[in-house]
Fold:
Amino acid sequence: MQLVTYPLAGLLEFRPRIFGDDRGAFFESFSARTMEGLGLPRHDWVQDNQSSSKAGTVRGLHFQRPPHAQAKLVRVAQGRALDVVVDLRRDSPTFGQHATVALTAALGNVLYVPIGFAHGFVALEDDTLFLYKCSDYYAPAAEGGLRWNDPALGIAWGFEGEALVSPKDVILPTLAELDSPF
Structure:
């Protein structure tokens, strides 16, 4: 397994070793032992989510407020997506900064997103299948987010054309308007 680190503390990308032959391929997409060996906090992953998206669909940037804050393990099982995270931890030297990670079914890469980040992605191909594990259950009263196209964030989403965005995500606050709960 290859490990990729990012300037945003705690954000890690795992690139598994893929075993392929004439029948197809196999890889381990999650191992608690591997995560613990890297010093990551132990999470009881309680919910798995899956979405299918057309190219140009933007989902996010979302988070849940404490006490229902979530760490996430995210990956693409089919297609390609650009994953985006924004550091919302007030005491972090990278508060308000973002990172982007290309997730592809071919690479099988997995991104660990710690608590304290807003998270979103854009599907770069039709029928992109996005999977994620969450460390807490979805709690509607705790949901929050950032506007995906906040000019102050300067996120290059990596696609041409008009974004497909839910009405709920269009009205999310900008970073300047957000009182971060982290």
